[in-house]
Amino acid sequence: MKTRVLITDDQPDIRKLVRMTLDIGDFEIYEANTGPQALEVVSRARPKIVLMDIMMPGELDGLEACRRIKNDPALAGTAVVMLTARGQQSDLLAGKAAGADAYLVKPFSPLELLDLVDKLSTKS
Amino acid sequence: MEMREFWNGQCDTLGQVMERAIMASSNGIMIVEAGRGGLRTVYVNPAFEAITGYAHSEIVGRPPGRLHEGDADQAALDELRQAIAEQRPVKVVLRNYRKDGTLFWNELSISPVLDNDGRLAHYIGILNDISEQKRAEQELMTWAMRLDALTTMSAEGLLTFDEKGFLSFVNDAFLRISGLSAAEVRGLHAECFDRMLAHQCDPRFALRGAMDDIAELNSTGYIDNRETEVQLQVPQKRTLLRQAKKGNHGTSLLLYFQDITKARELEELKSEFLATAAHELRTPMASILGYSELLLLRSFDAEQSRELLSIILRQAQRVTNLLNELLDLARIEARRSKDFDFAMHDLRTIVKDVTSAFPDSSARMSIDLPNEMRQVNVDKEKIHQALLNIMSNALKFSAPGGIVSVAMPLRVDKVPYVGVTISDCGIGMTSAELKRLGERFFRADKTGKVPGTGLGVSLAKEIGAILGGSLEVTSEWGKGSSFTLWLPLVLPDTAGPVEAV
User: Fold this and answer.
1) Domain of B183, in residue numbers
2) Which of A120, B45, B397, B453 could pair covalently with B426 via S-S, beta carbons 3.0-4.6 A apart?
3) Is residue B377 left, alpha or beta, with left meaning phi > 0 and alpha meaning psi from -120 to 50?
4) Are residues B440 and B472 in the same domain?
């Protein structure tokens, strides 16, 4: 069975990049462009891995969405990776505090992304 | 001995002693007879001679008043005359002059002596040269005024506590910053003062009290002079830098408060700006690098390749624009107008160029240009940039389907100006936000929904200023904003060759 991956980013080019990158593997790609939309997809499709941009417009940003996913017992086992173009120490710490499993700073190499997603998909 | 003899004898002894006292006194003593012919000095003591420089013979037999000759216009003299007329004692301070013409301050006490019939017979005048005292008073007053000026003009709040821990001085600046009144604060003990100040501060932050400094003073004999922060909430949210210093001469503690709110805000803004700039640059780079790498790793058909390459190109252009904006701002910061290439242009042409730079949005634009030429002496590229920024903002902040209108008004303020007004019906700004517009990195959009660095308006403002114009902004929250870039208008007679429209 294909591993489900959700990419949440408000930039369509980024979403497309991730989709194309993961297209070779055994992955089923879902997309969302806001925090609320991401949560909706998560509860509906139950992806194993959620790639989440930190900075998204609206009240529900990536960090808050991550927190909600991690605090929901029904969604246990969902891995969350924060994506961000801000690389400040405070952001990394915030991500960790929100429960993120990993952190990727843009720009990232597609290979780096593949590697990380592979690792997380084999984790139980 | 007969009674009278005895009495006379006693009187003589007393008289001799009294005479001795008068002779030895360091106060000048004068006795004035109040006869039918007026007042007449009949005796002055040696101290009088010493103080005034006049000999006994130069004063006795004449009416008193020689000492203030030439300086008769003194309020104290009126007071003196009044008292004499009313036959009562008085003490006044007069400007008197010695024989050599030098001024001395005379503290004069007058006592009337009545005869057996209750009529005025004599006056006793006691002179006290208080020149030294006066000089010291004046010097003190000068110093007090200087100190007052310094502490009043000082932007730093200053407080002092005496050796018993009571507040001995507070300057205007501190009262202004803290919102406390002099009456509330004066004479307070440090403990009460600490409580009062704490009441106005944010409870989440530690506040060092005067008592802490006093305790340190008492235990170690000196103060660390370290700086601590005060987070004031009432009457306004302010950040203060507090420093304590050991006092001397009756002052045990000095506290200085410096308002660093603005400085902190600027730091905060700069930090935010850097983070945002980084984000704005990294996002397109993610596409450029990501897609490039994919193209190299895998094989795509011609159409897919084109698609990916055009994304790369588009994002590369975005980065370039951003970098140019940043560099422009940095250059303009240095105000190097040599970078500016002045030439005569028809402003209408420039405006047309700007409006056509947004092909996708042209449907939402309402453009109203005059029929006549509007000549300006400007750097075409820079004006283009400034207007582009303003237009871009108007479109960005507009509600979908909203109209952005462009007009070119005229006005006269000593010289004629032509303006380019770009108005939108977007989110608008509150008066507070409007005040801050054009601040280096300020952005009206807090949600992060609207991309940008907040440099656009700053740049436009700088460019306008260098070209001899200005940026005028009006806005109403929820209704929209209107930006007008004013430039000096060059009237046709004074012009040289101009590019065709």
Assistant:
1) 154-259
2) B397
3) beta
4) yes
